Amino acid sequence: MTTFVSKHSASVSILLIPVLFLAAWLFPAFGIILLIISLCLGLFINSLMIIKKQNEACSQGRISRMLFIRNVFLGILGIVLTMTLAGLLGNYLGKLATRQIYDAQAKFLVGIFIGLLVGIAIGIFVQRIRKKLLWIFQKSTLGLPNIRDLMSF
């Protein structure tokens, strides 16, 4: 069963996106429930990947148990904040962009497109900031950044 899930997880995830859009369009209340379930499932899968990665480092002795807990907490918190920011900003910009569109189908499609673009942009932005912060923390000797390094954003 696990080999089937790991083998076909990408195709199932890609096929789930149009199903969610169709369900949201045909049955709005059911679509919201499916959306919440898919977001929770995505957060759960990402959390498991973070825990697995940090657990390997902890079992090899590269990090202590305290660092394991801190890294898992910060990783999951980063994902939650990124998802929240992308959702709120995408919703706001989608409503702003579709304010003058009167056709319901066009409004729906433009809103989805704007939301996807904002989500991708937020993901890229957070990834770049995360890489910069990791570089700063690895560069400093005590794990605390110098103020000059922080100002170089």
Structural account:
The protein has helices at residues 2-26, 28-59, 65-97, 104-139, 147-150. It is mainly α and 153 residues long. The protein has 2 domains: 1-63; 64-153. Helix 1 (2-26) packs antiparallel against helix 2, helix 2 packs antiparallel against helix 3 and helix 3 packs antiparallel against helix 4 (104-139). The mean pLDDT is 80.
Q: Flag low-confidence runs.
A: none
How many distinct folded domains?
Answer: 2
Q: Report how far the terminal alpha carbons are from each other.
A: 46 Å
| Secondary structure category | mainly alpha
What is the global morphology?
globular
Counted by DSSP, the helix tally is: 5
Helical residue percent band: over 70%
- DSSP E strands, number: 0
Order of helices and strands: HHHHH
Q: Describe the sheet with the most strands.
A: none
Instruction: Tell me the β content.
Output: under 5%
Backbone CA Rg:
20 Å
**Mean of residue pLDDT?**
80
Considering the chains and any ligands shown, give keywords for the structure.
5 helices; 2 domains; single chain; mainly alpha; 153 residues; globular
